[in-house]
Amino acid sequence: MSKIKIVDNVLSESLLESIKQYSRSDEVHHSYQIWEPEVIKDSNPVLVKYFNEEMRSRTISEIGKYLPQEYETITISWYGWIRGSYIPWHSDGHTKLAATIYLNEHWDADWGGWFAYEEDDEIKCIKPKHNRMTMVLPPTRHTVFTVSPIAPIRETVQIFAR
């Protein structure tokens, strides 16, 4: 049984626009500051902007109906995957649910940045698609392939529920 769930058109246009504006304001962190070395390896930095309480609440109100259960803690951030960034195979053992919402209005298949996961003895891939949420139930091993040198920033919303 798949531990992956996909929901298209998950966020309203007004929230998508608010996320875009929010991601371009104030302080942005990067993966070298906050991720463990085993999930950085030789990746270029991934930009990270934590959602404030207002953005977090608005997002939870729109995605909550798709979550498989209630959680004690849900953290939400904007990620900007720059050229040469990726995340190696991992299982998100620190959480009960991990989800990604793709924000780019267009993503060319040649730009990399695909989400891949193991299911039985197969590797399956999901191309980033605007306003699509991909949910992963740990311990599903998964990765994000390297973003191409010709790609724009691959923008996502990352959700971790515990």
Question: Can you characterise this structure?
Answer:
By secondary structure, the chain is an alpha+beta fold. 16% of the residues lie in helices and 35% in strands. The chain has helices at 13-23, 31-34, 53-63, and strands spanning 4-8, 29-30, 46-50, 74-81, 87-90, 97-102, 115-119, 122-126, 132-136, 142-144, 154-161. The strands form 2 sheets. It has a 7-stranded antiparallel sheet. Strand 7 and strand 8 form a beta hairpin.
What's this entry about, in short?
By secondary structure, the protein is α+β, with helices and mostly antiparallel strands. The protein has helices at residues 13-23, 31-34, 53-63, and strands spanning 4-8, 29-30, 46-50, 74-81, 87-90, 97-102, 115-119, 122-126, 132-136, 142-144, 154-161.
